[in-house]
Design goal:
This protein has helices spanning 60-78, 98-111, 131-140, 154-159, 166-179, 196-208, 226-229, 237-253, 272-278, 309-315, 335-343, 352-359, 367-375, 390-394, 396-401; strands at residues 31-37, 39-40, 52-53, 82-90, 113-124, 144-150, 182-189, 213-218, 257-258, 263-265, 282-286, 291-296, 299-305, 324-329, 350-351, 385-386. By secondary structure, the chain is α/β, with parallel strands linked by helices. It has 2 domains: 9-276, Aldolase class I (TIM Barrel); 334-404, Arc Repressor Mutant, subunit A (Orthogonal Bundle). Strand 4, helix 2 (98-111) and strand 5 (113-124) form a beta-alpha-beta unit. It is globular and about 55 Å long. The protein starts with 30 loop residues before the first strand and ends with a helix. The structure holds S-adenosylmethionine (SAM) and iron/sulfur cluster. Residues 40, 43-44, 47, 49, 51, 90-92, 125, 148 line the site of iron/sulfur cluster. The site of S-adenosylmethionine (SAM) has 16 residues, from strand 4, strand 6 and strand 7.
């Protein structure tokens, strides 16, 4: 059983700087909701997300009951706050039936103060795409679909263990575009045996689809995956870096802005949910393994949910907080790194005043690290911004580490 630490108000005593009544934040940040769907048709060999091969069917009824119990127990923490974005991620949420997504969204609407114009994204795998299903999701309120394409090359899709081919990937995009006006495509590059020309073909195919948003990730070998145990031959670091530069050139020449390390958007098409993470906004995470970060006037809390789907489905309905793990209040000394780790991923960074707004800490708590970063030419010289310079962008890990 995972370690269970229910969050109790007494935890505040652990941090004298955050003692009850000590006002930390003048205003609470925007609030998002993340809902985790933990099942996939098959586990991809490179994937370290909390995703599990589904059996013949997924236990939708028990899952939705547990989600309702999870959400109900979290409500006192977000009472009265408006929810700006919802992200139904996984795993493969497009495995859920039309009626399950409808019940899920009706539940969110009845429990939450959901902003009328809320961005509601659902992640889909082309191997589970069906035109009617996407239309039904949209009728229930989903207004953005994020599709895990990975590649348009059948040979690479097979090497990645994907359950779909390139034709199905193209068809899924068309189905999604008929259902909603906002579609994101996930693509990976530096794939086993991939040439620069093949990488370019993938990006061009994605651009030709007319999508408004692209998430482009370099394939990484993650611990505890099949690829970590049996590593495929990947392009070497120089080739991968060259691919990254080439991908950026192709996509920005097509009118996209690389606004975050892996995210590219046409004007007005940024993923509001993800931007809220990077701007150190708040998010409630429900479902197995979901993480959350919530602010209160006197403290900022993080927590997570039990990772194993079966254990979470058993624990959440007990209503004794045993489905919550790793609850903790962030110590003031954690905040500079937590904030900068996120904010510096944005190409335009953030305004310096956002640091105090979101962490309650004076900018002076960053002074030493900022000085070092400026001395190394890693930040732009504008003192009103916290933004990587061109050099800082190239050495982002080193820049972020200065705030540890
Ligand atoms: C949580 S997955 C969900 C997408 C959906 N389940 C699918 O695969 O179709 C989000 C994205 O992370 C990316 N990703 C997953 N594992 C990765 C890895 N090891 N290296 C790079 N990107 C990865 C993939 O592009 C994937 O689409
Ligand atoms: S379908 Fe997506 S979440 Fe599922 S195993 Fe593959 S990459 Fe991971």
């Amino acid at each position: 059983m995972p370690r269970v630490i229910p969050i109790v108000t007494d935890l505040r005593a652990a941090s004298p700087a955050l003692s009850p009544g000590h006002a930390l934040l003048d205003a609470l940040p925007p609030l998002s909701l993340y809902v985790h769907v933990p099942w996939c048709v098959r586990k991809c060999p490179y994937c370290d997300f909390n995703s599990h091969q589904a059996g013949d069917s997924i236990p939708e009824g028990r899952y939705l009951d547990a989600l309702a119990a999870d959400l109900e127990q979290a409500l006192p923490k977000i009472w009265g706050r408006q929810v700006h974005t919802v992200f139904i991620g996984g795993g493969t949420p497009s495995l859920l039936s039309e009626s399950a997504v409808d019940r899920l969204l009706a539940m969110l609407r009845s429990y939450l103060n959901l902003w009328p114009d809320a961005e509601i994204t659902l992640e889909a795998n082309p191997g589970t795409a069906e035109a009617d299903r996407f239309l039904a999701y949209a009728a229930s309120g989903v207004n953005r679909i994020s599709i895990g394409i990975q590649s348009f090359n059948d040979r690479h899709l097979e090497a990645l263990g994907r359950i779909h081919n390139a034709r199905q990937a193209r068809e899924a995009i068309v189905m999604a575009q008929k259902a909603v006006s906002r579609v994101n495509l996930d693509l990976m590059f530096a794939l086993p045996g991939q040439t620069m020309a093949e990488c370019e073909e993938d990006v061009r195919a994605a651009l030709d689809s007319g999508t408004e948003h692209l998430s482009l990730y370099q394939l990484t070998l993650e611990p505890n995956t099949v690829f970590a145990k049996y590593p495929p031959k990947l392009p070497d670091d120089d080739v991968a870096a060259h691919m990254q530069d080439h991908v950026e050139t192709l996509v920005t020449n097509a009118g996209f802005d690389r606004y975050e390390v892996s995210a590219y958007a046409r004007p007005g098409a940024r993923a509001r949910h993800n931007v809220n993470y990077w701007e150190f906004g708040d998010y409630l995470g429900i479902g197995p393994g979901a993480h959350g970060k919530l602010s209160f006037p006197d403290r900022i809390e993080r927590d997570a949910r039990v990772r194993n789907p079966e254990s979470w489905m058993q624990a959440a309905p007990q209503r004794d907080a045993s489905h919550v793990t790793d609850g903790r209040i962030l110590a003031p000394e954690d905040l500079p790194f937590e904030f900068m780790l996120n904010a510096l991923r944005l190409r335009q960074g953030v305004s310096a005043s956002l640091y105090t707004e979101r962490t309650g800490q004076p900018l002076a708590t960053l002074t030493k690290a900022l000085q070092r970063a400026h001395d190394q030419g890693l930040l732009v010289s504008d003192p009103t911004r916290l933004q990587a310079s061109d050099r800082g962008w190239r050495f982002l890990n080193e820049l972020q580490a200065l705030f540890l």
